[in-house]
Amino acid sequence: MIFQPVLNVFLLALLCAPVAALAVIALTKAKGRDKALWAMRLVMLLACFVMFLRPGIPGGATETLATDTDIVLVVDTTASIVAEDWNGDEPRLDGVRADVQTIVDEYPGARFALITFDASADLRMPLTTDTTALVSSLEVLRPEVTSQSRGSSIGIANQLLADTLSNAAEASPDRSRMVFYFGDGEQTVTSPPEPFDGSEKLTDAGAVLGYGTAEGGPMKLNTGSVDGSSSGYIEYQGANALSVIDEANLEAIAADLGVDYQHRTADAELILPEAPSTTTSYAESGTVGNVTELYWIAALVVVALLGVELTRASMLVARLRLLRAPSSSRRRKSPTGGGAA
User: Fold this and answer.
1) Are the C-beta atoms of residues 160 and 179 closer than 8 Å to each other?
2) 248, 300 in Cβ contact below 8 A?
3) How far apart are CA 150 and CA 153, in angstroms?
4) What is the rounded distance in angstroms from the CA atom of residue 24 to the CA atom of residue 62?
5) Confidence grade of residue 228 (pLDDT, cut at 50, 70, 90)
6) Cα-based torsion angle of the residue sequence 281, 66, 64, 209 in order, rounded to the nearest 10 degrees
7) Helix (H) or strand (E) holding 123
8) Cα 81 to the chain's mean position, in Å?
9) Between 147 and 27, the higher pLDDT residue
């Protein structure tokens, strides 16, 4: 049997010992039924202590797989990323989220960083193995507020990406690095896109993933409300403005990074490269022991004893009510004075 205490054992003992001492003193002084009650309360305290120790029986072992790779995700958060031409009339951001989940599943144990860009580039999440936080960040991701949009460049994240990759290489030179760029390639400023060629020497693999259609899709307004609700669509010359994918720009980014370009659609499988560094085998990756938890047995004992205490308390309350009832009745029936004159 093993124990996995919720707190340090000495701290648990320090918390429980004074209460146990009081229960023992009360038990020694009690008589009759009270002695049984205090013995029950002492057992309840011991059951709580055992429950906090989290006893268990060690079982088999589950082998884990780890990828010795750092992966940087660069996600477009301009208004066009919610253009509704993914899988019919769904926002492109839905496709980005689905593909990120696929990437997370494909490279278990990798570290992930998240960069987003619109009018500026931001490092939303530094390198971490906490993929739950990564997916949660994408779930709440919203495009820039429409009223504040002044146009954007698809290459504005080039320097932040290079810095992130450089820092990762300096901190962990033995780990490989992958870059995945998610966007539609639509350049909405007059200047040409900034090149990503400064990141090529630091990128071992990855892909540029393009979202959108040649026909284009309408874009909902983002008012900046907390619930993400929209009051309509972005308009241009009296009609809904359409965002159209620019695959030439996306292919240029892929060439700068030295990775492949893929046009993404909902009915096409995402093709991912193999992790460039050695992926540890199941035998070499270590094991995580399986433990059969037993704390629930102590919890059942606590629940049962609490049930006894509650039953006893209910009976005492009922007796008190019965004792009060006759006295109240006598007060209501008390005779009034007075006689015939």
Assistant:
1) no
2) no
3) 10
4) 45
5) low
6) -110
7) strand 121-128
8) 23
9) 27
